[in-house]
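One such shown below:

_____
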Amino acid sequence: MDRSPKDDKRDAKVVVVTNLTRNVVEGHLSTIFGFYGELVKIDLPMFGKSGQNRGKAALEYADADAAQKAASHMNGGQLDGAVLKVELSDLPIRT
């Protein structure tokens, strides 16, 4: 079956990380995911009342190769005892 590059998300620079524990803050993500390449944006939505994260984050890399590496190495990896789900996304991060 032929797949266009768009289906493949080969150009995707954004990774979406889900199953984050409540303890995770932006600093953790930039340290761990910054290992794979330059991060240009981190979107970690928080609950207003508690100030805790909502369990998911979007990270934008400067280049697609870094995003690919991060997704393949960190999907199924652990952070703060939780198994992460990391997927490539071709959607831009909200500002």
